[in-house]
Design goal:
By secondary structure, this protein is an all-alpha fold. The chain has one domain: TrpR-like (Trp Operon Repressor, Chain A, Orthogonal Bundle). The protein is 52% helix and 0% strand. The longest helix is centred in the N-terminal third of the chain and has 19 residues. It is globular, with a radius of gyration of 19 Å.
Length: 162
Amino acid sequence: MPPKKRFTDDSFRREPWFKALCQAFLTCRSEEDAANLFRDIGTLSELQAWSERLEVAKNLVRGLSYRQVAAVTGASTTTVTRVARFIENGTGGYRKVLHAHRHHRLVNEQSNNQVPSTNDPNEKRIDEQTRNVPSGSPQSTPASKGARPHPVSVLQKYLDRK
């Protein structure tokens, strides 16, 4: 029996099996095609974990704190921290898909600095919590009259204090 393949950070992109997997995903022309391929390849637990991680990333990019993200998604703080680390120091997959850059800040800000919708019924409550910025801070003074302040990640708040 041949030894089991092991991917490493240095070589996984060159592995023929991984390249074939990437090509398979590129053949999907619809959400249904992608869902069918994901379901055939992954277990329901794996699909749930991948979906959860993407939702965690979306909420981090929106500026929610790690604890808020954990509360909203049900993900462990370990998972939230791991996703944040990949947003910051990963290969750029999350940043490209979510139109974000390092420090979890939005690149493509919408008009009036509004946060993109997640279609979450709890969104309004959480948005109000994340917009409670101390008076006098740069985030408390919107650029234009009537604009809502942009939520800022915990990391960005820390960096802004320096």
